[in-house]
Amino acid sequence: MPTEEVVKLYKSCFLTAGSNKLIFWGTAQHLKHCMIQPKYNEKQKYFEFPLFPSVIDHLKIVVPNIQIDERLLSYTTELKSRFEQFESLKSSQDYGDLSDVGLKPVDLYPHQKISSKINELFPRMLCLDEMGLGKTLVAIRTALYRKLHCDNKRCLIICPNSIKLTVWAKEISNRTHMGYCVPTGTSKRREKLIKQFLTFNTVNPDYYFMVINFKMASKFLDLLKEFVDGQMLIIDESQYMKNLASQRTKAIFKLEPKYVLSMTGTPFHNHLEDIFSLAEFVWPLIFGGSFTYFKDQYCVESSIEIPVKTKNSKHRTIRKKVIRGYKNTDNLREKLELISYRRTKKDVLDLPEKTYENRLINMTTEQWKHYEAMCKQCYVLIEQTNEDEIESVANGILAKMLRLSQIADGYLTDFADKSRSYWIEKGGKLVELDELLEQIVDGYGQKVVIWSRFVEVIRFLSERYAQKYGAVAIHGGVATQQRADIVDQFQTDSNTKVFLAQIQSCGVGMTLHSACYEIFYDKCFIPSSSIIQAEDRCHRIGMGDKCTIISLIAQGTVDEHWEEILSSKLSAADEILFDDKAEQRSKAEEIQPRFSKNITKEQLLNLIKIGQKGGV
Predict the structure, then answer these.
(1) Contacts of 119 (CB under 8 A, 6+ apart)
(2) pLDDT digits over 78-103, tens only?
(3) How far apart are CA 25 and CA 548, in angstroms?
(4) pTM value?
(5) CA pair distance 76, 71, nearest whole angstrom
């Protein structure tokens, strides 16, 4: 590789490949006609580009005297061939023969075989397949392929805490003959288990998989860097690393695996910019390596003034830029398609369609009394806040509004005095749920999954239906080690008819397809993507009957207004994830976020408006 002294001659420039990126030794003057944004490495004194054949071809044109590493030239030919195969596989049903990698006998679906072939093409890949398409099994097969054909020694899996045992440990055990470790217990015990596994792996390469949650990625960073250095990393539900400022995202970016498979069915929870960190980790510099550059290219920003209090109680304002919409989405989609693939269940599976049903519920007179009193409190709080202050206090207001959702559920509480919490036994939703379960379980002989965002609701309902329906439950307070057994009981025990699930704790990874009925007791202030994830715990591979999804909506309340938001907002993700609708939109058109993070005063007041009501 040329030295900085060579570059200083201003006569020579050199292009070679580094770690998952192109390295250009030269000056800014050499790149004055370059149309691709490079990143300058201050420490090493060279420019970095994403590792694409098109970038190399472009540099050949705009830098006439460029010298190219011979090894890079031969690799470019191979890389072009891989991209051609990639495009062919994404639009084909002909996947060819799959090699035996030591997976226990299993019949893969055609789309899983295609995924496996795609994953073999590139050392780093972003899988955006919709939930319920069997990504876990494909990822395990890919890891076994790397072990057999690429001399990979270890595989680290990072996933949400709730699915370490219920999904990954179970699938590894059922599908492979490999040893695995899921570090649990105290911090010292987890550290000891990681070290032990490294020792075991050195002696016996069949100790291959280790499964951790995202929090452990930052807590045991040094050990994990040793574990995954030059090895394989699988990231499941990688939308968890969307926040560049979070400790887990920073930690993951410090890992240096050779092979990466990142998976998520919902890359944009609410905001298009969430894709930046996911894509940059899988394929460095695809968006220039700079979030500022990404925003300049794809985000529409405006400034707002936010009032703040100083130590001496004086008021002042600060100006802050906020994202109001998006632009150049066609270009963004084209880049994303270079490093990722996505299929939906509608595309590749013959699953029964989802059937949706909304049940409008009347609250009791007692519920309305409490609901209207709380609405007045919220109204006063919002009215006293001017438009510019709304963003800074929105979270506090929305947190207070959660009480409205609880009241609509029939659960009354004084947050300052938990002893005053109680249920309205004849609340509209509770009565309706009793009748639905009698119809579905007693009448049809079917199992049911009931969803809520509140732990109190899950606990109360699980106790209510424990004896009659053998109800089991998982919420944030249930230990991770117990969750796999609870899921297995619901899936296999004919006497366990009802599964109570907290949306935040069970919305990813779990398979609950023994039920074909799902009931949402509440949805308020849960993103639409999380609702879809929850729905797809049942609507997935292995499901037999059609999936019926019932939402209980307290009429005239925040329930109804939030349901309107969920059903009416256009998802920004649909515009990017290779959706046909995107072709119908103007390239110059700006699209808006699904849920504006800059919530307005009017939107908040609309959420607490009281519509038609009926006391019972």
Answers:
(1) 125, 127, 138, 139, 142, 145, 261
(2) 999 999 999 999 888 777 788 899 99
(3) 60
(4) 0.75
(5) 9
